[in-house]
Specification:
Layout lengths: L2 E5 L1 H11 L3 E6 L5 E5 H7 L1 E6 L2 E2 L9 E3 L13 E7 L16
Antiparallel strand pairs: 1-4, 2-3, 2-7, 4-5, 4-6
Helix pairs in contact: 1-2
Length: 104
C-alpha cells in the first residue's frame, strides 16, 4: 500500500500531557467499533492514514481516516473510518474481539 498518514506521536504529546492521560481510544464512524491503546502503544505504532495512491483514502479502504498499527502485532487495533479520537486517564471504550478477522 502506498499512502500517506501521520504518526500519532506528533499529535499526542501536548493534549495528553495537559490532562495526564495514559490511554487513547479510536472510534469508528458506525459508533460500534472502537480500540483503546495505551499512549505508549499509540506513540510507538500508531499511524492515521488519510491518503492512498495520491488520492483521499476511500471508504472501501477504511477512509477517510484509518488507524493502522504496524509492529503492534494486534490487527484488531486497526480501526476503519475513524471519526473520533478520545484521550483519557485510564482505559477508554474498547470493543475489539479476542480473535480478529482478516484485514481488508
Amino acid at each position: 500500500m502506498k499512502g500517506r498518514g501521520i504518526q500519532l506521536k506528533g499529535l499526542l504529546d501536548v493534549p495528553a500531557l495537559a490532562i495526564e492521560a495514559d490511554h487513547i481510544a479510536f472510534h469508528a464512524a458506525d459508533g460500534k467499533y472502537s480500540a483503546c491503546l495505551t499512549l505508549q502503544q499509540a506513540r510507538d505504532h500508531g499511524v492515521l492514514v488519510y491518503e492512498l495512491d495520491g488520492a483521499p483514502l476511500p471508504d472501501t479502504k477504511g477512509g477517510p481516516f484509518r488507524l493502522v498499527t504496524p509492529g503492534l502485532g494486534d490487527l484488531c487495533a486497526n480501526v476503519k473510518g475513524v471519526s473520533r479520537i478520545e484521550i483519557t486517564k485510564g482505559p477508554g471504550r474498547d470493543t475489539r474481539q479476542t480473535t480478529c478477522p482478516p484485514v481488508s
